[in-house]
């Protein structure tokens, strides 16, 4: 290759394009990011769905909304035309990554983060909307590298209800399949959860409906991914037990000096043997009066409000 | 499939809750480590002083953020003037990111214009585990009585962007100002952010 053309190609590859057209994936070392639309157009005054798709190279991962004990959640800042509003990212069920002495949550191969976007009613057929987003993430294997990508998508405005992009239909349905269900709603309407404080931590009991099949196997396999900060630790559950069809998990309390104990537990439960993942939110019941007493010497009293450490009430929802 | 009619308390995962030795509100556990100049140091050498422990990995993007942005250097300088002892600690294991021979540690400290009282080398990770250091950076503030008064995040912007430093709430600064004024530290613990410590 002639020196001059080599130099020219080198110059091309060093130039940094700021915006990328529609679905062209962006190469950022070990993560490729794309912005995809479920539909071919958008309808004024309605909601449509976009996907931020991150594909990780072998061995690399990115992070969940709560990254765990290290790492950094993927973040999206939207630049949308006047009147548009993007909802919060919807996160697929994460995996747990364990390193020496620390645990984190994220995605090993691919993460498809959905976002619902509202298009204002003032739009007119024939217009088009330029939707832009800056995505920031942390990609890690052993070492970690921050990455970012500025992505754009142009959608035409049509009065009629939008048609789905057939070639992306299975991707979007797969993305929805990977979202956790909501306990107490939809398919899990008859499931219930109860969280209570006991000496060693927070006990979470998940009760399937009476007519649920017994799970496969005798030993329940379950994990808990905290959403709210400062309630339970990110570490694996201390204990997972079956009680009939119910699953009872004992979760370590978060490492935080408590002036007032957390009142709400929120997180994603994965029941591996039932192949279920559900988002759970439950108030935490205090132990009965007198349950921490001489008869139960290993039961620790919650730190009362007189320990002087004065941590303001944490509502660190990530 | 038959339903299980009896209480099956099979424990699929059983783990004892590990309490770290270092607890906010309690005496910071003593330890001894060599520094990057070959001198042996003990925490108890600094009895009567305010001490900051900074878990450090030169190559971690979160640590780099606070050095590139001059945050660490600024804190070190401001508080050295108030007789605070800043100890940086490297707990990266041999062969892992952040583990450097002492000469390289000294070189990097100099290049960055940092001024810790010492950089302590903890390749076995004993002190990191003693303090349950999870990330780089992970910050600890110890008062003159030897009590751990703050543990956790350096500030409230868990990103790798230098631009986020000026507007961030500095928990380390707050803790140091409180201790130096003889007041209680209001926020004793904030979940730290950073890369995992490379034990």
The 3D shape of chain B can be described as globular
Secondary structure: helix percent of chain A = under 10%
Oligomer: heterodimer
Mean pLDDT figure of chain B: 92
Distance between the first and last residues' Cα of chain B: 46 Å
Task: Record keyword descriptors for this entry.
heterodimer, A: about 325 residues, mainly beta, 5-stranded antiparallel β-sheet, about 5% helix, disordered C terminus, B: about 200 residues, alpha/beta, 6-stranded mixed β-sheet, two-stranded antiparallel sheet, 5 helices, globular, disordered N terminus
The gist of it:
With 318 residues, chain A is mostly beta strands. Chain A is built from 2 helices and 19 strands. The C terminus of chain A is likely disordered.
What features would you describe in this structure?
- The complex is a heterodimer of chains A (318) and B (199).
- Chain A starts with a helix and ends in a 33-residue tail after the last strand.
- The model of chain A is unreliable at 8-28, 289-296 and 300-318 (pLDDT under 50).
- In chain A, strand 10 and strand 11 form a beta hairpin.
- In chain A, strands 12, 13, 14, 15, 16, 17, 18 and 19 form an eight-stranded mixed beta sheet that branches.
- Chain A is mostly beta strands.
- Chain A has helices spanning 3-14, 169-177; strands at residues 26-28, 31-37, 46-56, 62-68, 75-79, 85-86, 95-99, 102-107, 110-119, 128-140, 144-156, 181-182, 192-198, 201-207, 222-226, 239-243, 246-251, 264-271, 276-285.
- Helices cover 7% and strands 42% of the residues of chain A.
- The radius of gyration of chain A is 24 Å and the shape is globular.
- The longest helix of chain A has 12 residues, at 3-14.
- With 199 residues, chain B is of the alpha/beta class.
- Chain B has five helices and ten strands, in the order βββααβαβαβββαββ.
- In chain B, strands 5-4-3-7-8-9 form a six-stranded mixed beta sheet.
- Classes of the chains: A mainly beta (318), B alpha/beta (199).
- Chains A and B meet through strand 10, strand 11 and strand 16 of A and strand 10 of B.
């Amino acid at each position: 290759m002639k020196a001059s053309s080599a130099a020219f190609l080198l110059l091309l590859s060093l130039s940094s394009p700021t915006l990328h057209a529609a679905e062209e994936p962006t190469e950022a070392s070990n993560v490729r990011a794309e912005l995809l639309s479920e539909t071919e157009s958008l309808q004024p005054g309605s909601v449509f769905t976009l996907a931020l798709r991150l594909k990780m190279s072998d061995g690399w991962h990115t992070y969940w909304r709560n990254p765990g004990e290290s790492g950094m959640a993927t973040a999206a800042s939207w630049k949308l035309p006047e009147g548009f509003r993007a909802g919060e990212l919807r996160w697929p069920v994460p995996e747990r990554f364990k390193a020496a002495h620390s645990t984190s949550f994220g995605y090993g191969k691919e993460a498809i983060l959905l976002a619902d976007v509202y298009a204002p009613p003032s739009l007119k057929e024939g217009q088009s909307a330029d939707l832009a987003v800056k995505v920031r993430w942390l990609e890690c294997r052993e070492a970690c590298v921050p990455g970012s990508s500025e992505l754009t998508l142009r959608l035409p405005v049509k009065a009629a209800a939008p048609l789905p992009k057939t070639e992306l239909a299975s991707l979007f349905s797969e993305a929805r399949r990977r979202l956790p269900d909501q306990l107490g709603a939809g398919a899990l309407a008859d499931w219930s959860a109860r969280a209570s404080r006991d000496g060693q931590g927070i006990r979470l009991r998940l009760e399937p409906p009476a007519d649920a099949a017994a799970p496969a196997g005798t030993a329940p396999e379950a994990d808990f991914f905290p959403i709210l900060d400062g309630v339970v630790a990110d570490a694996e559950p201390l204990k997972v037990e079956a009680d009939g069809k119910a699953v009872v998990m004992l979760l370590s309390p978060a490492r935080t000096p408590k002036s007032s104990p957390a009142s709400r537990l929120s997180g994603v439960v994965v029941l591996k043997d039932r192949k279920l993942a559900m988002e759970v939110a439950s108030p935490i019941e205090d132990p009965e009066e007198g349950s921490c007493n001489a008869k139960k010497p290993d039961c620790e009293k919650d730190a009362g409000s007189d320990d002087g450490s004065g941590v303001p009430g944490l509502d660190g929802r990530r | 499939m038959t339903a299980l009619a009896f209480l099956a308390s099979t424990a699929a995962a059983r783990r004892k809750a590990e309490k770290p030795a270092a607890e906010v509100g309690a005496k910071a556990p003593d330890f001894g480590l060599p520094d990057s100049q070959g001198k042996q140091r003990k925490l108890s050498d600094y009895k009567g002083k305010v001490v900051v422990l900074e878990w450090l990995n030169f190559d971690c993007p979160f640590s780099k953020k606070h050095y590139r942005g001059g945050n660490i250097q600024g804190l070190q300088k401001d508080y050295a003037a108030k007789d605070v002892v800043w100890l940086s600690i490297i707990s990266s294991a041999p062969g892992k990111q952040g583990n450097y021979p002492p000469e390289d540690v000294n070189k990097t400290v100099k290049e960055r214009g940092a001024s810790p009282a010492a950089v302590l080398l903890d390749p076995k990770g004993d002190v990191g585990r003693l303090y349950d250091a999870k990330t780089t950076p992970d910050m600890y503030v110890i008062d003159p009585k030897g009590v751990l008064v703050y543990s956790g995040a350096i500030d409230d912007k868990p990103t790798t962007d230098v631009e986020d430093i000026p507007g961030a709430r500095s928990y380390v600064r707050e803790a140091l100002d409180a201790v130096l004024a003889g007041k209680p530290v209001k926020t004793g613990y904030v979940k730290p952010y950073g890369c995992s410590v490379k034990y």
